[in-house]
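User
Please review the sequence:
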Amino acid sequence: MQIAFEGPTSGLEIVRELLSPWDISFTDSSRAETTITYDTLPEVEKFVVIPSNSTDFVKKAKKTRLDFEVRLGGQVSVDACHKTRLTMTPTCSFRYGQWMNQEGTDNGIIEANDASKVYLTIDIIDEFKHTLDGILNPKISRTYKILTNMPIPYSIAPRQVKNLLMRKRHEELSHQSFCAHLSLDTTRFILAAAIEKSSGKKLLRKNWDKKQFAFVMTHDVDSQEGFGRSKRLKNIEEKYDIPSAWYIPSKRYRLDPESVKSLASYGEIGCHDTKHDGKLVFLARKKLNLRISEAKTALERLTGRSIDGFRSPLLQYNANIMAAVEKAGFCYDSSIPTWEPKHPLTMKSHGIQTMFPLSLGGLIEIPITLPQDHQMLSVSGLTCREALEKWSSMVNVIKNLGGLCSFLVHPDYELSDLSNGVYEELLNLIASEKQALITLPSGICNAKKNEILFKS
């Protein structure tokens, strides 16, 4: 479908990002099947208005008698597909003139008398900016600061003590809670639904190399013990034809070059910092740049290959870390979860709230879209089998919405104990999905990069 956009360039880039899962090209209003406007009002027959609280937009609205008021709260929901409903609570919402009787939950869309004229009730561009700002400038918890700045490494603390600090009720890991923590994707589907209403046409979804959705398997190899277990995991993954990415710290334990190369021979090696001490988020920019570059160079020397991906230990992240990862020459980062019930950096529910890769400047962010094994086992207190059941439920959501299922399984934890059979069941679940692309993070990155190049 061809659509037009009228508004600031920064708004266009966000709209492009939100609509990236659909087959859409941008053109001028004279040739478009509908026009999206932001911070302005349209002068075309078919349009979708994204409201803005800017002074300029308010003045224009008053001149055309498009009276509206801004209110706080108010849940918004959208039927993303016939099986899945996504919900979000925007920072504010808009109520328009003759439609002022809106109350309670709505779908984010108001149609004028002419169905081709559609008004959104939320500023999805501002919501996008707000979400990313919260991600790239997280409020670090006092507990995280204390544990990672002690004179002795936090890693030597008994695992039972660390688990107790992180424990949270497992009831929060449910189908409903997962759908309620996809606010960026909620705005995607609201905008897509508005375009369909205005144009009178169904949007076509892009596919994952002719597949409905995608799987990526990743491992953080945090310890010498986990490094020793990695080969066994790799062997069973080969049996199911599932390659994986191995994120390895360059200086935490002894790395046998042949073993590292063996992992790379059926998958890829990613960088996992140097020491895995949780201090990246506190480093000044110069030290941060040097440390991340040092880790990349060390692994490239060890493997004789380019290291394209980075994942931060303890999934710590902020704008400075992302800038340093890009400056070091990485193609992608995969440090930010879609959603975790209790992220160690913030000690509360946290995540980037999308199941699709994002372009953050010159870096591609590949979210960990399913809560990692540590969140399942240590935070939520689930058994390995219960964790598998939760994952299976969330996979169904992502499958229905055509997203990316990105797993993080540590060779250091219980799930990698092949004697219980659960990990093999997980691999069988992945391999049995005939409509899924099974690939590596670098494959997802390259596809996203090509999409950006094509658009430009």
